[in-house]
Amino acid sequence: LTAVKANGDIAWDKVIGDYLPDRDFGYGSTPAYHKGLIYITSDYEPKGYLVAIETKTGEEKWRTDRNTMASWSTPVVGHVAGKDQLLSSGQLKVTSQDPLTGKLLWEAPHISKSTCGTVVWNKDSVFASGGYPKNQTAAYAADGSGKLLWQNKERTYEQSMLVHGNELYTVTDKGFAFCWDAKTGEEHWSQRIGRGGVMASPTFANGLIYAPIKNGQTTVFKATPEKFEQIAQNQLGDDTYASPVFIGDELYMRVGFRTEGIRREVLYCLGE
213 with 240: CB under 8 angstroms? Predict the structure, then answer.
């Protein structure tokens, strides 16, 4: 792990551990930040871990063993059920820890050994999905009990889900957009928006959800439980693996083009 100053100089670097998974997919998890700490997840068997590193010094604050199986989801700190919780999924469970000390707050069984998407949350609950070896999307109480509130067999594996208002939205691996009641799991609607797999996570802005799929097609639809209402559908590039990002009124998208068998990536800035 390396800390780089604004001028490009290295402030510190530190070996935090090995990453030797049995599947050659690389380091899928992204570092997460909270109150002066950087969190790194390295899920693999038999020496996986989640570690917290102080950003100013590079010193290790705490470490938790995670030794069950390779997984690629990113940890995240959410303020849920009245407190900050460091949330992670994978390894047949969903876990909540105190972000400053690493103390286990609660954990709950989850049937997916490997997950890639980041856990999402609302005021009271935590939502996780995974797809290997079994599919599950589930909601858990974040009050310390980890109680399973509802579940279904949809698969949101590499991408993350999205919470808005009282609803949970996702685009599954098969290219179906879903809207569920976040409290009960009741399906409000589902709609196929494309074919070809999904890698990027949907992004919310101004009441709309922007959802790319792998073949480069992006669908824009309203974030509403009443019905699926498509606003636009556009093709940009030959493939899309990266999630769209909004900065102010501008949308940034990284897409791929293939020419004579050679793939190159292009970053677009889209505005009015």
Answer: yes
Last residue of a domain, one of 112, 139, 172: 112
165 and 91, same domain (yes or no): no
Summarize pLDDT for 19-32 with one digit per residue, the tens. Answer: 776 666 666 789 99
- CATH for 70: 2.40.128.630
The structure tokens listed for 11 are 């402030």
Residue 89 lies in a domain: yes
Please name the helix (run of DSSP H) or strand (run of DSSP E) that holds residue 85, with its range, or none. Answer: strand 83-90
Whole-number percent of the chain with pLDDT over 90: 77
Helix, strand, coil percent values for the chain (each to nearest 5): 0, 50, 50
CA distances from 126 to 115, 246, 266 (A): 15, 24, 35
Report pLDDT digits (tens) over 210-221: 999 999 999 999
Cβ(41)–Cβ(53) under 8 Å?
no
Is residue 202 a part of any domain in this protein?
A: yes
pTM comes to 0.93
Beta-carbon contacts of 256 under 8 Å, excluding residues fewer than 6 positions away, are 216, 237, 238, 239, 240, 241, 263, 264, 265, 266
The closest of 220, 221, 223 to 207, measured between CA atoms, is 223
Range of the domain at 71: 1-112
Can you give the pLDDT at residue 47? 79
pLDDT, position 131:
76
The token pair at 70 is: 């390779």
Specify burial of residue 143 (Cβ count, 10 A radius: 0-12, 13-18, 19+). Answer: middle
